[in-house]
Amino acid sequence: MMRVFKFGGASIKDADSIRNVASIVRRYNSDQLTIIISASGKTTNAMEEVLTAYWKKQTSEMKACLDKVKKNHKQIMDDLFDTAQHAIYSEVHDIFVDLDWILEEEPQDEFDYLYDQIVSTGELLSTKIVSAYLNEIGLATTWLDVRDCIRTDNTYRDANINWQETEAAIQARVPALMAKGLVVTQGFLGGTTENFTTTLGREGSDFTAAIFSYCLDAQDMSIWKDVPGVLTADPRLFDDTELVEQLSYAEAIEMTYYGAQVIHPKTIRPLQNKKIPLYVKSFVNPEGVGTAIGAFDITEYPPMIVVKKNQALLRMVSKDFFFVDEAKFSKLFEALANRRIKVNMTQNTALAFSVCVNDVPNKINQLVADLEANYEVEKIENLKLVTIRHSSAKLFDQIVGERKIFLEEKIGSNIQLVMGKDEVL
Ligand code: ADP
Ligand code: ASP
Ligand code: MG
């Protein structure tokens, strides 16, 4: 069977975790596997710190952050490999040399471009180490540079996939490699036609795995997580969560779009298009049933809660006392789209249009300036959007409680509430 696996940062955070990943992979020995891997642990955050220090020309901070990343990876290698003569040490060294080349020059290019060239280091390191380890323990593995496969435009930090080129590149390379053994490649990264590195947006490795699954017509795709599967809510926020064993593609899209971090929202569509099942499984308990997402016709779901942080509410009131009608709506949405501001909920009256959006500070100020001539714009910050799917009346009452609700929408048993970010649910 041809399968695609994805392992995230938590599953490869140290040597023991990588050994655990290897033991999971070994169970699927008879399958043809492509394995997508994220950066180890919190490396992506650490690389963002390196970048910020570089951008601000704070050389000593930059070196200190980078040293931490180097140390972490050296520790992992020391724990995994018997000898410092192992070829992996020089491969990892080469990756850091490439990075040093960039960091030695003063920042001249655009921030987003530099972000992708620098932050991508995390995935290059982790995949090199994991594939060397798999080879070391007798699981023949090819390391694949994903930038030759995932072809994108040059929207740095949020690159768009060129599906035709990507499909051709994956089909030309990967099946032949899978015939020889395991294939390990990077999540999150892509490459432009000029061979610059791009990234697909934070948490994008799940999406990378879906792209490979689609292009390879995989039998199924599994993402291995630190949770038993998709739960009725984020266990970091709620105590009494339950495993949801089956979800339809549509239900999974709704949950992830509104903030269920367990799967990146872009992951579902490519799989749905080819009816490829997605399994969300636990790397802590690989025997567990996990969650299956597929073309199921499910009518009954338990109540599920999703919280999306970092929200702001914009209330735009027409200055000239004209109705906010269809023509005005389309202008307002155009203004939002031009600034790439993501709208999560809307409501309108004759003169006012309210939107709950992802709060990206600069962008919102720019939007306010764009609209100033025709609208008074009021902004409320520090909010979160709580989505309750398949709610019961009891759960609704419990979530609303005495809390101040800034915006509310109810469609059947699906409810969305905008409230202060510090409300404890
Ligand atoms: P990865 O390491 O693969 O990127 P993530 O950390 O992004 O994994 O996703 C797993 C995390 O998602 C869990 O640790 C959990 O806290 C969070 N999460 C949020 N909502 C849910 C949910 N409904 N079910 C399970 N996990 C959830
Ligand atoms: N390493 C990247 C991130 O932390 C991509 C991913 O993990 O999915 O965002
Ligand atoms: Mg993730």
H and E order: EHEHHHHHEHEEEHEEHHEEEHEEHEHEE
Named once each, the bound ligands are: adenosine-5'-diphosphate, aspartic acid, magnesium ion
Helix proportion of residues, in percent?
Answer: 25-40%
Given helix and strand content, the structural type is alpha/beta
List the uncertain runs.
none
Q: How many β-strand stretches?
A: 16
The number of helical elements comes to 13
Strand content: 15-25%
Gyration radius from CA atoms, angstroms = 23 Å
Characterize the largest beta sheet: strand count, sense, and whether it forms a barrel. 8 strands, mixed
Cross-sheet strand order for the largest sheet: 3-4-2-1-7-9-10-8
Tertiary shape: globular
Taking all residues together, what is the mean pLDDT?
96
Gap between N and C termini: 44 Å
Task: Kindly summarize this structure in a few lines.
The chain has 425 residues and is α/β, with parallel strands linked by helices.
